[in-house]
Design brief:
Elements lengths: L4 H10 L1 H5 L12 E7 L5 E7 L3 E6 L4 E7 L4 E6 L7 E5 L3 E5 L4 E6 L4 E7 L4 E6 L3 E6 L4 E7 L5 E6 L6 E5 L3 E6 L4 E7 H5 L12 E7 L3 E6 L3 E6 L7 E4 L8 E5 L4 E5 L4 E5 L5 E5 L5 E6 L5 E6 L5 E4 L12 H11 L9 E4 L1 H7 L10 E4 L2 E5 H11 L3 H18 L13 H21 L29 H6 L3 H21 L12 H43 L18 H12 L2 H11 L2 E5 L5 E5 L5 H30 L8
Antiparallel strand pairs: 1-2, 2-3, 3-4, 5-6, 6-7, 7-8, 9-10, 10-11, 11-12, 13-14, 14-15, 15-16, 17-18, 18-19, 19-20, 21-22, 22-23, 23-24, 25-26, 26-27, 28-30, 29-30, 31-32
InterPro entries: Beta-prop_NOL10_N (IPR056551), NOL10/Enp2 (IPR040382), NOL10_2nd (IPR056550), NUC153 (IPR012580), WD40/YVTN_repeat-like_dom_sf (IPR015943), WD40_repeat_dom_sf (IPR036322)
Family: Belongs to the WD repeat NOL10/ENP2 family.
Organism: Vidua macroura (Pin-tailed whydah)
């Protein structure tokens, strides 16, 4: 899909997969979805129905192409080919219509009382049996051209039906999970099978009542039933218990059941998978999972060809040579399959390499993201394999030499494994590993005396393998916790360190020792155990004294560092309209901001900047007065003095007029 048409044509000459593609029947597809597919009894015609628009297509196998196409008024639920060729066809449509087609096209249309889901044709009497959303089974006689008396069943609804090709027993699967068998001659029920109860076994898990979704007869005595919960039950008509119950383990309704007589197989399909299994043992023969959901499966008679109707335009054709030979109209498939077995298959994406973003960064190709050299796919990119090899050689030119050395080292280690091995200690936590080895040896001696089973070693346990490989898990013996919790570690560690030196010298010189260093006598060990109890308290005290001294030294060093550091002057910027008084004001503001809203409101009330009063409605009204800056306060005082002086002048002027004197006022 990434290539142009020209490159695709060039690729067809080189790509083996493209050259192996075979289009058996030209345009073997539907516009959107195919729902049912069937083969005529003479094997010459393949008919399929689908949408959209609802239509039927007939393909001629002798011409390997489409013969005709007819559009219908409504979608087809199912259809049946009554004649050996395509000359007589019956369609059951979703609008309760039953439509008859002859060789030239549409012939007749009628309706049934309830919505139909399936129908079967009874050849001796020319009756069509319709089952659907009703407790009745409707009978339409094609010879007389009229409906006959219907069969009254105990079921509320019926899903599928089938007629035995040998003795013409009519069977129908109900929504309650039962199968009712009727004799068309007497129109009486002759048997009842409770498949829902038989389908539930110890291994199966179901969420609801299993209903019957598929039904198929095989010969005179065998019958296969598919349920809506994904089980297939094989019955002998002489018994009410199933011979075998096969679960698809998907919980999806069984859509189709076919019998393959050459290998005694049953081919059952739900919407996700097609399973082929032995009808005697239930052993899986093979299974297929198409890319799209399955609607119907059709087995071409007396061959190994399988056709499926899918939730996609393309109808799939599978050829399995083990099931049988290829049909006579495509006998060349047998020769092709023999050639394919001789030639090895090439894998998909041979010319591309999948890389992640991290791989691109390691190769130095992260700048190519978004260009045509990288094709985004899932969580990474596809790139040309030649470009990948070139970039890898440039990024790490000695990769082959490292790979060669690693392979040589692995070969040498494989040969060394056959020799007598020394007990090698890991690179990380050597002292802990030595302690575990010593304890393991003591436990083995103890278990031999008591005749007990040896417990597994921590060194051999995969759960603790990282503890002796990753340096992050290295035990820090200088930490405070280790020294207090392990006061006697110092004495024991000295002994282990001596052993470690001896083992390292032996490994360096390449000497092999069969026996480990001998331990001390039992009386010496007993004397040591008594001394350990006394020395434990003294060791703890010593460690605590050492820790206090270390803390004291650290404090002295910090004090010296503080004295050496010089305090630098800091400058603060004051906002416009504010005067600097002291640093206490900022501290007061910070304390005020930490107080709650209630405390701040009480403080504002005391200062007079807040006035709380009750309203007539019953609520409270709070009035705030903004604090004024020093500059605004001085300006207001000057304005106030100016107003007072003008008032005084007006009074003196009015006083002179009242006396009637004339004078001058100087300001």
């Amino acid at each position: 899909q990434w290539l142009s048409d020209r490159k695709k044509r060039a690729l067809q000459k080189k790509d083996v997969d493209i050259r192996r593609r075979i289009e058996l029947i030209q345009d073997f597809e539907m516009p959107t979805v195919s729902t049912k597919i069937k083969v005529s009894r003479d094997g010459q015609y393949i008919m399929a129905v689908g949408t959209y628009k609802p239509r039927v297509r007939c393909f001629d196998t002798y011409q390997l192409s489409q013969k005709f196409e007819r559009c219908l008024d409504s979608e087809v639920v199912t259809f049946e080919i009554l004649s050996d060729d395509y000359s007589k066809i019956v369609f059951l449509q979703c609008g309760r219509f039953v439509e008859f087609h002859s060789q030239h096209g549409h012939y007749y249309k009628t309706r049934i009382p309830k919505f139909g889901r399936d129908f079967s044709y009874h050849y001796p009497s020319c009756d069509l049996y319709f089952v659907g959303a009703s407790s009745e089974v409707y009978r339409l006689n094609l010879e007389q051209g009229r409906f006959l008396n219907s069969l009254q069943t105990e079921a509320s609804e019926s899903n599928v039906c089938d007629i035995n090709p040998v003795h013409f027993l009519f069977a129908m699967g109900t929504a309650e999970g039962k199968v009712e068998c009727w004799d068309p001659r007497t129109r009486n029920r002759v048997g009842l099978l409770d498949c829902a109860l038989s389908s539930v076994t110890a291994d199966t898990e179901i969420e609801g009542l299993p209903s019957i979704s598929a039904l198929k007869f095989d010969g005179a005595l065998n019958m296969a039933v598919g349920t809506s919960t994904g089980q297939v039950l094989l019955y002998d008509l002489r018994s009410s218990n199933p011979l075998i119950v096969k679960d698809h383990h998907y919980g999806l309704p069984i859509k189709s059941i076919q019998f393959q007589h050459q290998l005694d197989l049953i081919i059952s399909a739900d919407s996700r998978i097609i399973k082929m299994w032995n009808k005697d043992t239930g052993k899986i023969f093979t299974s297929m999972e198409p890319e799209h959901d399955i609607n119907d499966v059709c087995l071409y008679p007396n061959s190994g060809m399988l056709m499926t109707a899918n939730e996609a335009p393309k109808m799939n054709i599978y050829y399995i040579p083990v099931l049988g030979p290829a049909p006579k109209w495509c006998s060349f498939l047998d020769n092709l399959t023999e050639e394919l077995e001789e030639n090895p298959e090439s894998t998909v994406y041979d010319d591309y390499k999948f890389v992640t973003r991290k791989d691109l960064e390691n190769l130095g190709l992260a700048h190519l993201i978004g260009s045509s050299l990288l094709r985004a796919y899932m969580h990474g990119f596809f790139m040309d394999i030649r470009l990948y090899h070139k970039a890898k050689m440039m990024a790490n030119p000695f990769a082959y030499e490292e790979y060669r050395r690693e392979k040589i080292r692995q070969k040498i280690e494989e040969t060394r494994a056959q020799r007598v091995q020394l007990k090698k200690l890991p690179k990380v936590n050597k002292e802990l590993a030595l302690k575990l080895i010593e304890e393991e040896g003591e436990e083995q001696q103890f278990s031999k005396k008591r005749k007990q089973k040896n417990l597994p070693s921590l060194l051999k346990d995969d759960r603790f393998k990282v503890m002796f490989e990753n340096p992050d898990f290295q035990v820090d013996e200088q930490s405070e916790e280790f020294r207090l919790l392990n006061p006697l570690v110092s004495k024991i560690s000295e002994k282990r360190k001596r052993k470690l030196k001896i083992l390292e010298e032996l490994e360096a010189q390449g000497q092999e020792e069969e026996e480990e260093p001998e331990g001390k006598a039992s009386d010496a060990e007993s004397s040591e155990s008594s001394d350990d109890e006394k020395g434990w308290v003294e060791e703890v005290r010593k460690q605590r004294k050492l820790l206090r001294q270390e803390e004291k030294l650290k404090r002295q060093e910090r004090f010296k560092e503080d004295q050496q550091t010089l305090l630098k002057p800091q400058f603060f910027e004051i906002k416009e309209g504010e005067e600097f008084r002291s640093f206490k004001d900022s501290a007061k503001k910070q304390k005020l901001m930490k107080k709650t809203l209630e405390d701040r409101l009480k403080l504002e009330e005391k200062l007079g900047t807040l006035n709380v009063s009750d309203t007539t409605v019953g609520s409270k009204q709070a009035t705030f007065k903004l604090k004024k800056s020093e500059q605004q306060r001085k300006q207001q005082e000057a304005e106030k003095r100016h107003r007072q002086e003008r008032k005084a002048l007006r009074r003196s002027a009015s006083h002179l007029k009242s006396r009637g004197g004339r004078g001058r006022l100087f300001h």
